[in-house]
Amino acid sequence: MTLLTRDTELFLETARALPTDFGPATPRSVFLITPEGFSLAEESAQDNAYMADAQAFDAQRALVQHRTLQAHMSRVVPAVCFSGRVDTPDAVFPNNVFATAAGRVVIGRMRHPVRQREATRQDIRDFFTRVLGYETVDLSTQTHAAELTGAIVIDRARGLGFIGLSERCDETGARLMHEAFGLRASLMFDLAPSEYHTNVVLAVLAGRAAVICPEGFADAGAVDAVAALYAPHAVICTAQEHADFVGNCISASADTVWMSARAATALTDAHKTQLNAAGFEVRSVPLDAIEAGGGSLRCCIGEIY
Question: Fewest beta carbons within 10 Å, which of 5, 97, 109, 208?
Answer without folding.
Answer: 5
